[in-house]
Sequence to fold (439 residues):
Amino acid sequence: MTAGPGKAGNGDPGRPAKGDCGKPVNDGLGGSPDSGAGTSLLGGVGAAQRDGAPSVAGPEPFSFELHAAQGAARAGTFQTPHGPVPTPAFMPVGTQGTVKTLTPEEVAEVGARMVLANTYHLFLRPGPDVVRALGGLHAFMRWEGPILTDSGGFQVFSLARIRKIREDGVEFQSHLDGSRHFFTPERVMEIQRALGADVVMAFDECPPGGASRSEVEKANARTLAWLLRCRDRFGELQAEEEGPRQTLFPVLQGNVYEDLRRQQARDVMSVGEWKGLAIGGLSVGEAKEDMWRTLAVLHHELPAGLPRYLMGVGYPADLLRAVALGCDLFDCVAPTRNARHGTAWSRGEGQVNLKHSRFKLDTRPLDETCDCYTCRRFDRAYLRHLVVAGEWLAHRLLTLHNLRFLLALAAEARARILEGSFESWSRDWLLRFEKGREG
Ligand SMILES: [Zn+2]
Fold:
């Protein structure tokens, strides 16, 4: 089996308007090269399966085991039909069925275990029926590790031209050719069934940061009503003999209103036996302090035994803070998008823009503690030259580094939680990273 690649959404098109992962402009670097998650993952997905995860549906194809906690931070393992995912974990985004510029083997080599693909983009091109005819996303992309697909809702609301939002679904026009389509909760389940990811997401409505209380109340009600329809259609599809074993994650909305968050969490927990939960509606333009406050509320509200996927968060410092507040899975286009803009993360300097003239004769690696191919092989002066010249190799090399940086950070966080040193380590890490940032 090949190692796997990532998918949808990777870079830009993936999560457009919404905040690009919280858009912190400076986050940290981090990750020590040998953090747990990263290292053992280097063997790729195949290795993961050899570790004993069932490769075909057993009685319990999806489960989550918590190994340790420090404060709210948790270290666990999310089991899927395509192998285990040690958590906390970052999922690289592959918008179009590819983590931009990298092969599946490279995505595995930087430590990724699970990748994300975008339903909206793959629905428009090449189309779910094409992907299904070619064996599903895993076979199509040659990624044998776990895959998560989003519901497409985010892109429909941010990329497409919305024609009409009704109780039964959303009519929209493709941003590619203007063609008209209609997404209902049932249709979104059918599309994600055809794509064949391990984890599929419920169709939800995500109000922007700053939305009024009444807007959020309405969105919560619609999200819950759509969740029931997703749950029922998903159940029917899973009952079919043929096809992949999948699990459906509900998306928790509620913006930054604490009581609405609590109520939504309780409502969602009461209508299904979920194997994991997604926290949506954050990193959409609200103040950072509101995001942290909301995550703290959710930590006390959500059951400890389910993995929590914080959608769209993945700048290094944000990831670390969210881990400290009990989140387990993350995705963000920042590592790949930033790479294409010539920016990279460095543990001691925060986020750096390689176009800066101060790197012209800088013969140090991007990050002296990083074990990625880019840092082992090239200096900043050469990388700067590639960026300034607009060379494709710059995109590849910076993508390799940025992804390794985040994946190693998540892996080290995991190792620190397991050994009980997470709190002091993360405090020092953030201090160093944020002190060094360019601003
Ligand atoms: Zn590196």
